[in-house]
Write a structure and sequence with these properties.
alpha+beta; Alpha-D-Glucose-1,6-Bisphosphate, Chain A, domain 4; Multidrug-efflux Transporter 1 Regulator Bmrr, Chain A; seven-stranded antiparallel beta sheet; 17 strands; elongated; membrane; Transcription activator effector-binding protein; Reg_factor_effector_dom_sf
């Protein structure tokens, strides 16, 4: 009997000792993971800030509603408390009967124009039973760290995929109004067109501003040649004007487009999809019993500025192809 009493006494002492040890364990928990995504900070911020997107990258929970998440461990709520555009997001996570946790996202632009993400989960007042679980099974840090790493990797893929989304729509027949414009002539590889265009557009715009010339509309490209097989193009980088301008610089000239009948196509997305937009339009022209003349006019107008709109999926471009009915002649004016 005494042995059993001593044994029970020792068990009780051990239980009290373990309970005290568990009770004095830290009441708070914090883990941070960092990751770099090759995308502008505003694009990454907007994607994370939209809870509808979380189902595409969160590796731990399945989002049935906008902010309701489910996992094998139970059900919870994720709410955004505060967001500072392109900078940070503060969220609150409520999971079953556990204390609320804070999730903090921060976004910073690196020297390479990529985005560094810092993602932190923190909680206070950890319940006794959770402290006991952590003591017995070694804590949840390694489990959370693993899921954080998987989630950030999926976020990287999801953001990049969202930037590649595009739409091509053939709007149909229209009349292109024409008019005067200032331009510089350039030749380059098609895949270098964007960079070449930016430098040329800055030059023409600077000339117009310096000489107080009224810009009468959106900038555009006047294609003189586009050879997708050999990846080569010759084009005029243009800004429309209200009247004919006599230029004092040899490489900035004045041109005039005569109004013409056209098929208009709209591309929403990265400029790398221009070739597909061209092919889609040319197929449409053929099916409509129309002809794109051998030396016909092609105008590409930029509805927004790629420098001001960081996500390529939101870039808007209109393309106008000169057309004529089959078996008729077209007059090309220089």
């Amino acid at each position: 009997m005494k042995f059993i009493k001593y044994l029970l006494f020792l068990v009780l002492i051990g239980f009290i000792g373990v309970s005290v040890y568990i009770a004095v364990q830290p009441n708070s928990f914090k883990i941070t993971k960092k990751y770099t995504i090759n995308a502008p900070a505003s694009v990454v911020f907007n994607y994370v800030n939209n809870l509808k997107n979380w189902k595409h990258f969160d590796s731990w929970s399945a989002f049935e509603n906008v902010n309701t998440l489910n996992s094998i461990n139970g059900e919870g709520q994720l709410n955004t408390i505060q967001s500072n555009p392109e900078n940070s997001i503060l969220q609150e996570l409520t999971f079953d009967d556990l204390p609320n946790s804070n999730i903090t996202w921060s976004f910073s632009t690196t020297k390479n124009k990529t985005t560094e993400i810092s993602w932190t989960l923190s909680t206070e007042s950890i319940p006794f039973k959770n402290k006991a679980y952590n003591l017995i099974y070694g804590g949840k840090e390694h489990i959370i760290a693993k899921h954080y790493a998987e989630t950030l990797k999926k976020l990287d893929s999801a953001v990049i995929a969202s930037m590649k989304v595009y739409k091509i729509k053939v709007n149909g027949s229209t009349n292109y109004g024409g008019g005067y414009y200032l331009y510089t002539t350039n030749s380059c590889k098609i895949d270098e067109l964007d960079e070449k265009l930016k430098s040329s557009m800055r030059k023409v715009t600077a000339f117009a501003e310096k000489n107080n010339i009224v810009i009468a509309g959106l900038p555009f490209i006047y294609y003189l040649k586009r050879d997708s097989i050999n990846n080569a193009t010759t084009f005029e980088c243009c800004i429309p004007t209200t009247e004919q301008i006599i230029s004092t610089e040899s490489d900035i000239l004045t041109g005039q487009i005569i109004p013409f009948e056209a098929i208009k196509t709209t591309l929403q997305g990265d400029y790398s999809n221009i070739n597909e937009a061209w092919n889609t339009t040319l197929n449409y022209i053929s099916k409509q019993n129309l002809v794109f003349p051998e030396h016909g006019t092609v105008i590409q107008t930029f509805l927004n500025d790629s420098n001001a709109v960081p996500n390529p999926a939101n870039w808007l471009t209109e393309i106008y192809f000169q057309v004529q009915p089959k078996d008729t002649e077209v007059v090309i004016e220089n």
